[in-house]
Write a structure and sequence with these properties.
about 170 residues; alpha+beta; Arc Repressor Mutant, subunit A; 2 domains; three-stranded antiparallel β-sheet; elongated
Amino acid sequence: MDNGKTELEIPEVSEFLEETVGEEGLYVVKALIGRELTDESLSEETELKLNIVRKILYQLYDYRLASYVRTKDKKIGWYIYTWKLDLGKIIGVIANRKERVLKELNQKLEYETNHVFFCCNNDNSKIPFDLASECSFKCPHCNGTMSYHDNQSLILSLEEEIQKLKQELQYA
């Protein structure tokens, strides 16, 4: 296996990594592909500060996209961490993330479709009907007048996003 080179060519994978570990993190990922390196050598090679490299490595470790072996330096007694990449799991990580987002979008869609909303004419804050009626249709923040808020465009947008994610998950 190429230890991640093929996966890195997939645009969705690159986008996920950049979003997760940032542009600097991509330097670390590219430096680790097909190799096992210590955090110190990664820091030297990428010219990033050691604490930044370690932060990136632990972010990758949190997703189980990187692993390490800890050995003790007999001369100085410190531990040395040698890291390697495992991007073979990244498609599953992305799919799990999409499933969580899908669940959240479905909850939001259910909330939006099951409630009637009112919006403040001054600050555009949106609250459900029951709270608006308790406040006599006056904004709880500024005491401004509240009027009916049509959320159909938001509902349609949520439905489209849900469909898109469902299709993406079918092909994952």
